[in-house]
Amino acid sequence: MSALEVSVDYRAITRNVEVLRSRAAGADVMAVVKADAYGHGLAAAASAARQGGAAWLGVAQPGEALALRAAGDTGRILTWLYGPAFPARELVMADVDLSASSADVLGEIVAVTRELGTPARLHLCVDTGLGREGVPAGSLEALLDLAVAAQDEGLVRIVGMWSHLAWADAPGHPTIDAQAAVFRDALALAERRGVELEVRHLANSACTLTRPDLHFDLVRPGIAIYGLPPVPDPDGERFGLTAAMTVRSEVILVKDVPAGHGVSYGHDYVTPYPTTLGLISAGYADGVFRSAGNRAEVDIRGRRYTIAGRVCMDQFVVDLGPVTEVRAGDVATLIGPTGPTATEWAHAIDTIDYEVVCRFGALRAKEPA
């Protein structure tokens, strides 16, 4: 085994999309596969999501959308994160849906479609309170004027309007309803202008699972696609989702040490009694968080062990206890069906599981180009 082995169960992604479709209350599902599908592999995860019934794929970067087309995906794809200098021509020619948050981006789209003679499918993004992408609600009417004029000229088709929630992972937070109200006002404005929208979309993973009243025509789950619920399941069943990523390494050395023996740099861990240490062949150069020392756990032979002392560049240590069956060559599971979850690692190191899977996923063996 290499220092760190990251594998993905793509059947789990398919099943997760099926679960989310069942919770979508009649809305279509856009599987968000940005950032290399949260480290799970862009093309393979997208294919698995399609098999689960995802009607749409969503990506942030234009290059991701073009990569999906190059991989053979022919379904609806939306990309949304770019300024006015973006490959609009290539995206329009690839039949990718585009998003506009500003007159500058819309102007670039219109210039390209006028030259090509091919209209672009356009989604208008509204900032309803997140403060990130999206036209401010007070400026939407001006952007809508430009978009409607371009549509009347046959240069775009306004097919969607969307926004993103700031606090959906805290069900009941007042910002959710406040943003939803702003979004409904934006939809009403488009309707008064005679715009017939194909899809209205607001719900991320958390909202898909907890707010069916905000599903509209399309939901955009991201982290849930990969089996990681962003909110606790009241029934304790993880909403029926299955984590897709497994991260493993190997125990390469087992040795006995006396009580009072310092472990790793700085002796942040000192053995409290005569015990056995296990050396794991993975470190922060392999994606293991340095902050995981004395905090995160691994699974070896079905038992959990906390990392003992500091994580080093290419190795870390666990205290196996005075009596152990662990031997050199055993598998150490950092994240997996029989080991800790990405969410548990996130709680241990004060981050979110999104970062954990993206970090480990960067080390995943990539599928052939």
Automatic annotation (TrEMBL):
- Binding locations of substrate: R132, M313
Which GO MF term does the entry hold, naming one? alanine racemase activity
Mind telling me which SMART domains this protein's record contains? Ala_racemase_C
Superkingdom: Bacteria
Q: What class of enzyme is it?
A: isomerase
What positions does the domain Alanine racemase C-terminal occupy? 244-367
Pfam families according to UniProt: Ala_racemase_C (PF00842), Ala_racemase_N (PF01168)
Q: Which GO terms describe its biological process?
A: D-alanine biosynthetic process; peptidoglycan biosynthetic process
For activity, the cofactor(s) needed are: pyridoxal 5'-phosphate
Q: Which GO terms describe its cellular component?
A: cytosol
Is this entry keyworded ATP-binding? no
Q: In which pathway does it act?
A: Amino-acid biosynthesis; D-alanine biosynthesis; D-alanine from L-alanine: step 1/1
EC number(s) recorded for this UniProt protein: 5.1.1.1
The residues responsible for catalysis, as annotated, are K34 (proton acceptor), Y265 (proton acceptor)
What is the protein's known function? Catalyzes the interconversion of L-alanine and D-alanine. May also act on other amino acids.
Family, per the entry? Belongs to the alanine racemase family.
Q: Which NCBIfam families would you find in this protein's record? A: alr
Protein known as? Alanine racemase
Q: Which organism is it from?
A: Demequina activiva
